[in-house]
Design goal:
Blueprint lengths: L3 H24 L3 H20 L4 H16 L4 H25 L7 H29 L5 H23 L14
Helix pairs in contact: 1-2, 1-4, 2-3, 3-4, 4-5
């Protein structure tokens, strides 16, 4: 039930998820790590084609990013790669969810709404991550965790209100007496 648009975006996300960290690793002379990131892309494509579960590949991708942090690959490459990993996983999970549903009314509208939310979330995470790299604020782990939780909850609240304006009074204007 995957749309051509979702499939193209999935392949683009996987290419960026593997390509950005691979390029960052290659620029540091870590050729084996770069090849492992490219192998990760092949694994993503294979699981997609065979319709195998993607959590192992997702965890492998996150582990690869963790290794790249440990060997000091530049954070910009890893930020882009990490956001793309999350987007690829989301697209694959959404596709799997749609495949389990026997009949979907107005599926193109549903897919477009999901892709819009995903673009907002991905763009927002890259923006916040980029700002975090530029601002260089010293903060402890617990306050950072609390701020991240508030950011996730707040963005979920905003996205919900953007998707459902009629539930929150936007369409419920009473006529003047």
């Amino acid at each position: 039930m995957i749309s051509r648009k979702m499939s193209s975006l999935f392949f683009a996300a996987v290419a960026v998820a593997a390509g950005a960290p691979a390029l960052g690793a290659a620029l540091r002379g870590l050729w084996l790590l770069a090849l492992l990131f490219l192998a990760q892309a092949g694994l993503w494509f294979l699981t997609h084609q065979r319709r195998w579960p993607t959590p192992p590949v997702f965890l492998f991708s996150l582990a690869g990013l963790g290794v790249a942090v440990w060997v000091n690959v530049r954070m910009g490459w890893l930020l882009v790669g990490g956001a793309a990993v999350l987007m690829a996983y989301d697209l694959e999970a959404f596709n799997a969810h749609l495949a389990r549903i026997s009949r979907i009314e107005n599926s193109s509208r549903l897919i477009d709404a999901h892709l819009r939310r995903l673009a907002l979330t991905g763009g927002g995470s890259l923006l916040v991550g980029g700002l975090g790299r530029l601002l260089r604020v010293q903060i402890g782990f617990v306050p950072a965790l609390i701020l991240a939780l508030l950011l996730v909850l707040g963005s979920g609240y905003v996205l919900h209100h953007l998707d459902h304006p009629s539930e929150h009074g936007a369409d419920h204007v009473s006529p003047a007496p």
